[in-house]
Design brief:
single chain; mainly alpha; 7 helices; about 75% helix; about 0% strand
């Protein structure tokens, strides 16, 4: 599981750099550089690719979910770290395979990334947003 945490860290750092440069840098180039720098010798980057591709393919819906569940915080006012940690967490909650990554694991991993890379209140902020999304998911599931 340590490899998955490292993978999420690399994804967050890559999304951060891409977002910081206003999406003008090649995300593939940024990702390749970060894998070489932070995980030399990591042979299996399928999980990293799955996360990056999933976030990018669903970024509009992911951003909308963040805006819906953090209405006091316009997307461009959320710190770059928190915004990209949320993107990963929202992707894993809404689009990921819950058999592979249970929702509570996705939330916990996002909180840990926020604590490591974000500010003093990042963990609480990430927990609040992802917790609200998860609560809504459970309520919708119980309606079925």
């Amino acid at each position: 599981m340590a490899n998955r945490h490292l993978s999420r860290s690399i994804v967050m750092q890559s999304l951060y750099e891409w977002d910081f440069w206003n999406k003008t840098k090649s995300l593939d180039g940024v990702l390749d550089k970060n894998v070489k720098e932070f995980a030399p010798g990591m042979s299996d980057i399928d999980f990293i690719r799955e996360l990056i591709d999933g976030v990018l393919q669903n970024i509009d819906n992911i951003n909308s979910a963040i805006e819906k569940y953090a209405p006091e915080w316009p997307l461009d006012q959320i710190t770059v770290v928190d915004r990209n940690v949320l993107r990963i967490g929202v992707y894993e909650l809404l689009y990921g395979d819950p058999e592979n990554v249970p929702p509570k694991v996705a939330i916990n991993e996002a909180i840990e990334l926020a604590k490591t890379f974000g500010g003093e209140s990042s963990g609480k902020f990430i927990n609040g947003v992802l917790g609200a999304i998860y609560k809504n998911m459970l309520e919708n599931k119980n309606k079925d």
